[in-house]
């Protein structure tokens, strides 16, 4: 019998690239279609874990591992949205300017037997105080589109980040240390 393959329950090319750093090539990729609305009063950490779990469970697969993730940018108890328009991205950047925030990157792995394992990476990030010109320049580049908190650390925003403590890959969207540990614990053979 063949060893179980891995399905990445995400359409994100960044998650695929990060997974490749562990020597893992998913057999298939695809975003899970779930309601991503936070529950009333839901804390950012609980929301991130719930989203990863629901995405892993929503992907129906046979003899395969299913890896899902979710990345949340939070200021205090506030969950920042994925920026789908420039006005939202601007609001996020203005809020994050000169202050520390958390990036919570949750992963969930569903085994071929239906078992579910989860891990959470928490990273502290601080932007420099951003001028109106810096915000306008970043927005003009378009990297913010569809990104939690309105920025992509793997792009030009990295030059605006004064300090980070935690997982850089977690801020990008897949915390590699936690992902590797989760896969090994589940018995998935790494490349």
From TrEMBL:
One Pfam family cited in the UniProt record for this chain: Maf
Name of the protein in question: dTTP/UTP pyrophosphatase
Similarity-based family: Belongs to the Maf family. YhdE subfamily.
InterPro entries associated with the record: ITPase-like_fam (IPR029001), Maf-like (IPR003697)
Compartments, record wording: Cytoplasm
Swiss-Prot/TrEMBL cofactor(s): a divalent metal cation
GO biological process: nucleotide metabolic process
Keyword Cytoplasm: yes
Alphabetic keyword roster: Cytoplasm, Hydrolase, Nucleotide metabolism
A cellular component annotation (GO) from this entry: cytoplasm
Reactions that this protein is recorded to catalyse: UTP + H2O = UMP + diphosphate + H(+); dTTP + H2O = dTMP + diphosphate + H(+)
Organism lineage: Bacteria, Pseudomonadati, Pseudomonadota, Alphaproteobacteria, Sphingomonadales
A GO MF label: nucleoside triphosphate diphosphatase activity
Active site: 70
Primary localization: cytoplasm
Site feature location: Important for substrate specificity: 14, 71, 154
EC number(s) reported in the record: 3.6.1.9
Keyword Hydrolase appears in the UniProt entry: yes
Organism: Croceibacterium salegens
Function (record text): Nucleoside triphosphate pyrophosphatase that hydrolyzes dTTP and UTP. May have a dual role in cell division arrest and in preventing the incorporation of modified nucleotides into cellular nucleic acids.
